[in-house]
Each structure stands twice: as C-alpha cells, then as structure tokens.
Amino acid sequence: MSQPLLVPNSSLHRYVRAGHRRVDGWLSRLDALLIATVGQWQNAQGISGSVGEIGVHHGRLFILLALLRKREERAFAIDLFDAQEFNVDQSGQGDETAFHNNLVRFGIEPASIEVVKGNSLDLAWTGLAGRLGPSARLFSIDGGHTAEITRHDLGIADDGLADDGVIVLDDYFNPEFPAVSEGLCRFMFERPGTLAPFAIGDNKLLLARPDWAGRYRGVLADAVPLRHFVRETELFGAPVTVFRTPRTPMQFIRQTSLTRRLRSHPLGQALKPIIRRFVQG
C-alpha cells in the first residue's frame, strides 16, 4: 500500500478522522476516507471542477467536499431546506441554519457556497451550470430516496459531471430505502455506458465514467488500509472493490490479511466452519 493522500493534521485530515462526527448526518469514517482519497488524488492530478451535493441535510458530507476544493473551485449545495412538504420519503431533513452554522464551525465561509433551495425534480444541469460551474468533479447524491427522485438526481449529476469526475450515491444498499437501488437501475437502463461503479463503502457507492473507473479503483486500493478491504466483485458488469468497516468479530477475522491468504488454502477451508461456529456461538 502506498502512502495515504491525506496530509496529517490538515483540516481535511482532522475532519475525516473525527470532525465529521460533530455534524448530524450519515457518513462513516471509512466513507469519508474513500471520498477524501478520491478528491485529493484529483487535486494531485490537476483535475478540476466544482464540488457539490443534492441533499445536504446539516452538511456532514458537504463540508468534506468543501474542504477538498481548490481555491478557484465552486461548491454547491442543493436542498429542500424549508420546503419539507416535498420530502416525501423522510430520508433526511435539511436545516439551512444548522447547515450554515456547521460551515462556520469548520472554517468555511457560507458566502463562498452556492446554495440552491428547492425541489431537485424542478432542476436540470442546463439551468444550473451558470451558477455551479461548467462541470463537477465530485457530485454527491443524497436527496429524495424514491426511485424517481434518485433516477432524476443521477441524471442531473451525469449531465454535469466532468469526464474525470466521480458521483457518490448514498444508501444504494440500505434495506430501509430499496427504491434508491431501483432508481439507479432505471438510470443505468436509460443511459447505458455513461457511468460505471468502482467502489462500495459502508453506505456509499462511487461511480465514474467507464474509462476512469479502473484508475479510481487503483487509487483506493493503494491508499485505503487493508483492514477495510473485503473483496473484488462486479456490479452492472463493471469490476468493483468492496470496502467495509469491520464491526463484528467475524468481520474482523474475515478482513485480516491472514484470512485472505487462507481463504483458498485447504487448511483455511477446513477451519472455516469451526471459526464460524466459535464466533457466532
């Protein structure tokens, strides 16, 4: 594994390690690390564009995006905020006051953020580009969790995504919101070949243009600690790396380097049922 891309003791590093926990929302430390690693690699490669999110809630993930931007880059936040009558699935509750207060807490000037208040179903990238920039390099989708809203919001992100950009989709595998999976499936059917998944985190799915997905997979494989690696698999016909925060004894055992070496060894095959019975009781 190569050296991590995050500069120790930087504001970004501190936010990924612990700062994000001080903001209400849904973002694990691992998912923050995956997104920050991608964003810092983009910075190192000279990749530029705006960064932003549909569905910012109180800003837990958005602050991470804002900390990743370069001086000349724009950051945008799209949310219903006070128009909660359109929050049909109650997947979050944006609060503009809490959002602004959290920006200030982490040294981000609210005036430097382009805020778009309203229902994303009424928006299109063509009408937003003048305010948000010609293209985005990091675009988080965490708005309404119905199939139609997810499909629509992915369309906005796809239309605005730079060729070397990345989309972060929330709750794709969350059983509480199965319609998010349906929404991405609809999008992939309607726009085949435009996006390819490349990494799965605790609760985030990362997608990029097919020509770039492999490069981003390699970046994460080199930079993310091995204890988070689970397996290589496929999704929508594309190779995908699965990362997880180990939370149970069995997960800790499965994600050790020794277990990975033993997985295909006869001794490992023999020990597998014994270990499972011991750990699970």
TrEMBL record:
GO terms for molecular function: methyltransferase activity. The keyword Repeat does not apply. Keywords: Methyltransferase, Transferase. Pfam families: Methyltransf_24. GO terms for biological process: methylation. It comes from the Bacteria. This is Class I SAM-dependent methyltransferase. It comes from Roseomonas genomospecies 6.
